[in-house]
Specification:
The chain is an alpha/beta fold. It has 15 helices and 22 strands. β8, α7 (180-191) and β9 (199-201) form a beta-alpha-beta unit. Bound molecules: nicotinamide-adenine-dinucleotide and (2E,4E)-2-amino-6-oxohexa-2,4-dienoic acid.
Length: 481
């Protein structure tokens, strides 16, 4: 697996090994970009701004991005295989979520960038004259795109597509755990006719590796990052030194509120999805569930039964409901939280351990989906992001208490509310400290809407016109008429 710089794949003196989350076995070597490779990638991106890409109009760029979407769809099964190989996720999820969203991101941002007007104001001057103000959108320049491993292609293209649609060039650093779909995307870019240097890819780790070399690089104009809040904080310090614009999509400790008036079947099924999709490795996953007391016992029992019944298949099995965690290190973290929850006094309603398969998957990074109860809001279990297939359920009595419990967190990314009371649904939207509030659904995305988190969950918003605001500079032109 190689780096992609200025339109060519390049090797590296140093490599690292990518292993399978399903079996733990070594899969392939990845070329780790050194500082020189990152320099070359940033230089190529800068040069491409001055080339044909920089001279294209937004409609022409949009046409190129639609070709990228077409080419991604032509390589659909290759990309599915790449995502499964790197993450162990299920073929069903890769085919219905990860890869279609990759293509959808390019189409959506091609449309948005090519059709969003800028503002214009006429000013009446003191002498009765007129001046016309209008805003011109310009690319920011070279954008560093640093993304995590949980939804590799989806999260990468969610940033690359708007960045390119706005006329920027990018240097991408995927997670060390998931180099494959980003490498395939480089092939797709070349095949779709994206000019050399517009999309560059460097593989490696964070500190003292490609990630840090990129964020510290003086030739980078803006940094868009998705990952842990602690990493965001470290990158923020570096970005401040270089006075670079940042967009941060960070961690979450998301609450789900189930009211007694909810459709309980929908709430149980929705909570199975929101807590266990992708092995709980989605920043939007619900790790804290609060359930109104009259339905608490029934809900808890049904959720625990559903969690215990989720199928452990191979990734190729369409019915697979559980996937492995991404790495040994991440599994140690999640199992550490399972132990901690017990030490804190939790009752384990489902899971809490490691499944035994009697086949090669015993060498992989699986854990059981886990449902906990019995802990207070100040426990570490209810405050720290675990990022695994686990949720804690606690009862509440009334709406005010539910909203207060949901808001009692250092994080503010997403919340999910299950209710049939329309008024309550709207009150929740206003009251909850979260960038996204879903009512009677979860992870339903419209790419024109704002996406991002409050508090430790992020800085800024992307999505729709908000992405344009990050990936462009606005110049106001004031003309005395
Ligand atoms: P991470 O922060 O460890 O790594 C993310 C990326 O940053 C990787 O590519 C990594 O190599 C790189 N990186 C790490 N340290 C760096 C440094 N000092 N300088 C530059 N780059 C550095 O996160 P992860 O473990 O890959 O992903 C899981 C986390 O991501 C969870 O906290 C999850 O909530 C969060 N996440 C948030 C969103 C969102 O939209 N808010 C989406 C997905 C994941
Ligand atoms: O759907 C998206 O656009 C998005 N950014 C999802 C993030 C998921 C986090 O793991």
């Amino acid at each position: 697996m190689r780096n992609f710089v200025g339109g060519a794949f390049t090797g590296s003196a140093k490599t690292f090994t990518k292993s399978s989350p399903v079996t733990g076995e070594a899969l392939f070597e990845v070329a780790e970009a050194d500082a020189g490779t990152v320099d070359a990638a940033v230089d190529a991106a800068r040069a491409a701004l001055r080339g044909p890409w920089g001279r294209m109009g937004e409609q022409q760029r949009a046409a190129v991005l639609r070709r990228v979407a077409d080419e991604l769809e032509r390589r659909f099964e290759d990309v599915v295989a790449a995502e499964i190989g790197d993450t162990g996720k299920s073929v069903t999820q890769a085919r219905t979520l990860d890869v279609p969203r990759g293509a959808a991101n390019f189409r959506a941002f091609a449309d948005i960038a090519a059709s969003t007007p800028t503002e214009s104001f006429t000013t009446v001057t003191a002498d009765g004259g007129r001046a016309l103000n209008y805003a011109v959108r310009k690319p920011v320049g070279v954008v560093a795109v640093i993304v995590p491993w949980n939804l590799p292609l989806l999260l990468l293209t969610w940033k690359v597509a708007p960045a390119l649609a706005c006329g920027n060039t990018v240097v991408v650093k995927p997670s060390e755990e998931t180099p494959s779909s980003a490498t395939l995307l480089a092939e797709v870019m070349a095949a779709a006719g994206v000019p050399d240097g517009v999309f560059n890819l460097v593989h490696g780790f964070g500190p003292d590796s490609a990630g840090e070399f990129l964020t510290r690089h003086p030739g980078v104009d803006a940094i868009t990052f998705t990952g842990e809040s602690a990493t965001g904080s470290a990158i923020g310090k570096v970005a401040a030194d270089g006075v670079k614009a940042v967009s941060f999509e960070l961690g979450g400790k998301n609450a789900g509120l189930v009211f007694a008036d909810a459709d309980l079947d929908a709430a149980v099924e929705g909570s199975v999805r929101s807590s266990f999709t992708n092995g709980g490795q989605v920043c939007l996953c619900t790790e804290r569930l609060y359930v109104q007391r009259p339905v608490f016992e029934e809900f808890a029992q049904r959720l625990a039964e559903r969690a215990g019944g989720l199928a452990f298949g191979w990734p190729s099995d369409e019915a697979t409901g559980n996937i492995p965690l991404i790495s040994r290190q991440h599994r140690e973290k999640v199992l550490g939280h399972y132990r901690l929850a017990r030490e804190e006094g939790a009752t384990v309603l489902a899971g809490g351990g490691v499944p035994v398969f009697g086949d090669a998957r015993d060498g992989g990074w699986y854990v059981q989906p886990t449902v906990l109860t019995g802990l207070g809001p100040q426990t570490r279990t209810n405050r720290e992001e675990i990022f695994g297939p686990v949720c804690h359920i606690a009862p509440f009595d009334d709406e005010d208490e539910a909203f207060a419990l949901a808001n009692d967190s250092e994080y503010g990314l997403a919340a999910t509310v299950w209710t049939r009371d329309v008024g309550r649904a709207h009150r929740a939207g206003a009251a909850l400290d979260a960038g996204l509030v879903w009512v009677n659904t979860w992870f339903l995305r419209d790419l024109r809407t704002p996406f991002g988190g409050m508090k430790a969950s992020g800085v800024g918003r992307e999505g729709g016109v908000h992405s344009l605001d990050f990936y462009t500079e606005l110049t106001n032109v004031c003309v005395q008429l």
